[in-house]
Amino acid sequence: MKFRRSIRNYVVGKFVGLFLVGTLHAAVQPSPRVVQLAHAIAQAEGFNIKGSIPARCFNPGDLKGSHYPRQIGVCKGGHAQFRNAAAGWAALYNQVQKIADGTSTKYTPRATFRQVAKMYAQNYRPWLRIVTKTLQVDDDDEVGAFLSDRDKLRVTYDAQNFDFDFDLERWAQ
Question: Which residue segments constitute the domains of the chain, with CATH numbers given?
Answer without folding.
Answer: 1-26+157-173 (no CATH), 31-153 (1.10.530)
